[in-house]
Amino acid sequence: MRRVIARHLTVLFIVTLSPFVWADKLTVYAASSMTNAINALAQSYTQQSGVDVTTVFGGSASLARQVYQGAPADVFISANERWVEYLIEQDITSNDAISVIAKNQLVVVSKHRSQPDHTFSVSEAQSWIHALGGGRLAIGMPTSVPAGIYAKQSLESVGVWEYLKTRLAPLSNVRQVLAMVERGETPLGVVYKTDALLSPEIEVLATFDSGSHDAIVYPLVKLSQSKSSQQFVEFVLSNEGQRLLQTYGFEAIDTKSKQ
User: Fold this and answer.
1) Can you tell me the distance from the alpha carbon of 71 to that of 66, in angstroms, rounded to the nearest whole number?
2) Does residue 115 or residue 149 have the better pLDDT?
3) Which terminus of the chain has fewer Cβ atoms in its 10 Å neighbourhood, N or C?
4) Among 198, 214, 196, residue whose Cα is nearest residue 206
């Protein structure tokens, strides 16, 4: 009997005195282009709240499908509105649970100092052909990856898509595009400005006009009703959270805006 009582007392002691055993947890699924920024936000939020944050990064399409299939995400951050709309259509979420947290720009990049000294123009087919040489243009998959969808829109808008569509190296997320260019496996790539800023190996050749593609926004979806989920959303939208995003090159948004 004494052993039974002692065992129960030990369990009670662990339950009541060990915050690490029962600490609140939060799982954030986010587009790969936000990897560094979200990791910084998660670290800061954990320091302030004590909530342990697990981050999962990947292509927005892949993550949205995982959420639909029941992945244990508390928060999902997409690199475009399309995959959030997909979750709304599947009755996974609603507009009330969505907040736009950041904006971005689309740029053409090459490996630093790899391009010959000439003026590059996104609207001139000859400029692309000259810069590509015999290589390919790395972009996200233009049918599903947000960065690839934006890239196709811009290339169509400036009139060079027909020249380039057979010379693509489509990839499953924008960080793979960046890595391909960094390694010199493709002479050019189309990525977000924030990705280009992260790499000393990368040179920005041109920035697409914002009117050439849909607005590049990052919708955040609160998938659970937990207190930590709501607090995390509020932190990301706070002045401190927005400043952190800006340090990684993202553009600030109106914190009252909703999709």
Assistant:
1) 5
2) 149
3) N
4) 196
CA separation, residue 250 to residues 37, 65, 192, 238 (Å): 9, 25, 10, 15
pLDDT category of residue 114 using cuts at 50, 70 and 90: low
Question: Of 54, 19, 57, which is closest to residue 36 (Cα–Cα)?
Answer: 57
- Beta bridge partner(s), residue 221: 76, 98
Residue 112: what pLDDT? 78
pLDDT of residue 192 exceeding 50: yes
Q: What mean pLDDT is predicted for residues 207-218? A: 96
Spell out the residues 6+ positions from residue 12 whose beta carbon is closer than 8 angstroms to its own: none
Q: Are 147 and 154 in contact (CB under 8 A)?
A: no
